Amino acid sequence: xxxxxxLARAVLPPLLALWIGAQAxxxxxxxxIALDGQREHADLIARAYATVLDQGAAPAAAAPRLAxxxxxxxxxxxxxxxxxxxxxxxxxxxRTLARAPWRSADGARQGEVxxxxxxxxxxxxxxxxxxxxxxxxxxxxxxxxxxxxxxRRRWQAGPVARLAEHVRQAGSQAAAGDERGDxxxxxxxxxxxxxxxxxxxxxxxxxxxxxxxxxRYDAVTRLMNRRVFFDVFRNALRAPxxxxxxxxxxxxxxxxxxxxxxxxxxEATDQWLRLTATxxxxxxxxxxxxxxxxxxxxxxDFAALLPDGSGRAARELAEHIRRELRLRRLPLKxxxxxxxxxxxxxxxxxxxxxxxxxxxxxxxxxxEISNSDELQLADDSSATRVDGEYSWQDIxxxxxxxxxxxxxxxTRRDTLGNVMHYKATLWLRDPGATEPIHSSQxxxxxxxxxxxxxxxxxxxxLALDQQVGAPGELAxxxxxxxxxxxxxxxRLRRLxxxxxxxxxxxxxxxxxxxxxxxxxxxxxxxxxxxxAGARVGVRRLSEQFAALERLHQLPLAYLKIGGSxxxxxxxxxxxxxxxxxxxxxxxxxxxxxYAQHAPDQAIxxxxxxxxxxxxxxxEINESTLHALDDEDEIEAAPPAxxxxxxxAPAADGAxxxxxxxxxxxxxxxxxxxxxxxxxxxxxxxxxxxxxxxxQRQMHSLLSHELRTPAxxxxxxxxxxxxxxxxxxxxxxxxxxxxxRAVTRMxxxxxxxxxxxxxxxxxxxxxxxxxxxxxxVRETAASIQPDTAHLLVVNTEPxxxxxxxxxxxxxxxRNLIQNAIKYSPxxxxxxxxxxxxxxxxxxxxxxxxxxxxxxxxxxxAEQIFEPHFRRAAHRETxxxxxxxxxxxxxxxxxxxxxxxxxxPGQGARFVIALPTPAAAGRRG
Length: 923
What we know:
By secondary structure, the protein is an alpha/beta fold. The chain folds into 5 domains: 3-120; 215-378, Alpha-Beta Plaits, CATH 3.30.70; 403-626, EAL domain (TIM Barrel); 685-760; 764-922, Heat Shock Protein 90 (2-Layer Sandwich), CATH 3.30.565.10. The strands form 6 sheets. Strands 10, 11, 12, 13, 14, 15 and 19 form a 7-stranded mixed beta sheet that branches. Strand 3 (95-103) and strand 4 (109-117) form a beta hairpin. Helix 23 packs antiparallel against helix 24 (729-752) and helix 25 (772-783) packs across helix 26. The longest helix is centred in the N-terminal third of the chain and has 52 residues, at 3-54. The radius of gyration is 59 Å and the shape is elongated.
């Protein structure tokens, strides 16, 4: 503190105190002097009054002669009684100032004079002095209180300041123990608290660092985790000023991670993953460029973000990573090495993350089905589907249910133009796609979803159908995932054994990877093929040379190589030696060795010198693809009159048209035996009547019980349409399908189970005049949204017919659905309707023509027998009752149902029904 304030604080308080004291002393002295003077004056007054009274005057008589005192009161007592008070209205005395006795004439004590002080106002000087003292006193008290408070603060702040300084200097020896004084314990407690606080801060920092590491890094590999990778990836997609493409994403998956975890300790697996991640990080840091990042997005999937837009650099880096992964593979208990699947795709600015990941997932599916570690490039062109796994499942299941598959036949020729064999490629028609989907797109997801075997069965079935009337051998590719399924092999055996003549011209082509991975399944497949006369070929042998050591154990049709292996023959002596080994193995087995994808004439000559048959580029065999378009096939002409009349009922109503004998007349009751028989017949009729009544009651019950769930489904479908409005075309199409099916079911219930038909027998028609062409168009329009086949309707302007529209519609729907089942999805179905004249007058006819494999002549009539199923179509669901019931319905309406067919050329089912005019003449 400066000297002057300190001097002022030291001198002014004593001086002020002395001055106040002097003022107070002066005031008190003046007050005492005044009191003493008043007391002396009162004493004089008391003696003067006593003297007057001593002269013998009575107090009341002496009152006029007594002077009035100033500021005093006089009380005169006589014989101890108050006799007189002066002044009369004086206030009561505050204190007694003087006393004087007075006596009578004889000298006896008569009474006493008492002088008291009256309350008087102090003089102005005293008031001034008192006010000044009061003010000084208040100021002094305030100053004293302020100083006491400040002193107390200083007294308290001193140790606290020293403690604060000690805390600031914690850990040093600046504050010695003797300087702490009485606060030594507090200093120690603060030291301990500070140390504890420092430990808590350190622990908190460690936890924060651990949480940050956990939130950003994978716990095992120390790579960036999924969340960080996708955050960076989204920012990269939103970054402005990027080229086209903006960068690439590489995903690689360890396909055998579950097997590794089952047979290795977790510590060993974690160490292997850490070591692999370390080497890959070094590779990416050295070659990936600025902004590249490696991350582990789940247990078996890793991803690398390559912001560099160069596709060549990305492919080279991906190939480098593939080699690193191959060097660090682990052996499995099966004797094989663990497998990696790699996929690379380019991304563009403002592209959606889900779109990029869907492309990568589809490429990973292709890598998995190829069973190799070759890099799969995910093309982002419009031809490549990017549906997710669940969408693929819906597409494939629907295609299997609705027979949406078809085959395209391609010719395989050698360099001289000779036909070696034909190749069948499976395609799928999806209502959500404008173009058919190639098997290379839907078989990878089918393999992952466990539907590859069902797709392969469809492929083999369609191939057998296509071989009817087609020349040469047809090769059908089978997915590796199907080879290990016993149920697939059983179904394949039935297909081949049911059609042995066609199976002998069928080649089942398998992948070399499947031969290594599922050797026992391939052995079983070869046995099935050999017993049925079919053969087995091996393709992509150049991608899995480990299959060479097992080829001698199998009866094979051919070996085939291709791809990048063939492209590199000229520059790689090692590949030439391997190719020569394959050719020599084929010669040893006595089978041809094929090579495809030869880029130039030099490679073709090299392959020819090694013993390979070089295949030219595959081309679609247009003559086979459009074989059913020729004019010499089944013509869409009306059936002949005699053919239409074959199954028409006889005009005399004898029942011959229905194929049943006329019932004999009831016997006459002329004897006891006849009466007994009559009683038995009556009893039997009663039983039949009771059974018929019970059947009618059941009919009514079914009519009621089936309407309730149908109405519930209809209401639920309407609610879903409201809830899911705007959810996309896929949802809308499925809801529309539900609505159509429910509407059709309710219409059938309203018609078939109506009260009007309650007393009708089964399949009893209710004929009415209608337009057959309109019925055909309505039925085809209701079926078309749920099928991949094109329904082509060709009817005359007006085709009058007398029939039951409901039953005739059921027959037509059955025929169309059969045509869908047994025709490839790329073939159309022709539906014609018209009028023709016959032996019994004009007839209305309609025909359903498919382009399937046709029907053998031996089966042409048996297909109308109940529960008859052709052996060739066991894999197609059905009960064998549809055509039988359809013919019965046509016959019950006075018409017929016949078939015109030729193997390999499809089938044509013709319905003939009477016209209203012909029925009137017949009646």
